[in-house]
Request: fold
Amino acid sequence: MEIKRKLAVLADAAKYDASCASSGSRRASQEGGIGNTEGMGICHSYTPDGRCVSLLKILFTNYCVYDCQYCVNRISSDVERARFTPEEVVDLTLDFYRRNYIEGLFLSSGVLKSPDYTMEQLTRVAKLLRVDHKFGGYIHLKSAPGVSRELLAEAGLYADRLSVNAELPTEPDLVKLAPEKTTVAINSSMGIIHDAIEEHGKRYAPAGQTTQMIIGATPTTDDAILATSSRLYTSHGLRRVYYSAYSPIPKADGRLPAKSPPLVREHRLYEADWLVRFYGFTADELTTKEAPNLSLDIDPKLAWALRHRELFPTDVNVAPRELLLRVPGLGVRNVDRIVAARRHRVLTMDDLVRLRVTLKRAAPFLVAAGAGGTAAAARLLDALSLEKRVRPPVQLGLFEAQAQAVSGEL
Reply:
């Protein structure tokens, strides 16, 4: 198969992997080398649906010895197969970089022969780039569960980031749809990477490790998904958990649903994940026993506030930072500006506007000095009821969810 066709097949096969962000690494270029991970990256290419892509994102091969039912590349699938050589991946990466298309490489793979054999091939690609070509750009390698400690130790010396997919939220989910994989093997590989990062610091996988979880392929509820994510953050120090809505594949059997979950569910999980990581929430606060799934109609922060009306409106001039972080519409930067500003003066609603607070969302939950604060408090119950009644569901995908979270609008 010619290289152009291989690229078409294996780039398309990699589109289901969401965990390809390139943040968190700083690697300077070497004398006589090529590329670095400084600054904001180089030039970006775009997918047909408009998403920004700055990495060459491919599979090494879409051959796979596993039969995960949700995966289009499973062994029982009849998709067209292809396989690169390590040298071909190196040449493609350097060529794309020189053309200013990319800032680095995201390399995943089906499991070829065994997890160890596959990881040897991926590590060879990274080693050739780093050692032979002095490549200073970003490299993310994805490992299958069960790779030996020695191979993972070597891979992290050349890769900026490593990741092992959690695949599904619970062990019963894996038994049902991916019986060759176990939570024991997945956690063991994550633990090896975490220990190596702790031991070697920035010399090993300086951008840390991430994982990806498929949602909607099983009936598992959002409370269980968030509990698993929270445990992974705590036990393995993950940088990110990526949520990927299940996409129906051709010739799937009866174990899988006939259609995808609404994309807004994926978006809500990213919002909830952001609240746990940066806003002081715990996973079990964002759902209830009566409603174990996140609301599709309103974001999880607003849903929490509606369940705790006794806390609002809160006085922006005296409320602790921890409570201000729970006010809908206030992002972390908003809260830090408020806390800094109120040391020097009593804040009014006009001051909040100058501090870039989005009052459309935050005002019903806040009291400030002056008439504006009194009016906001009086409108509280009406505004909350109106928000819950008329706000339409929004279908947002991964990159839009990340953009909204980063903008501080949660």
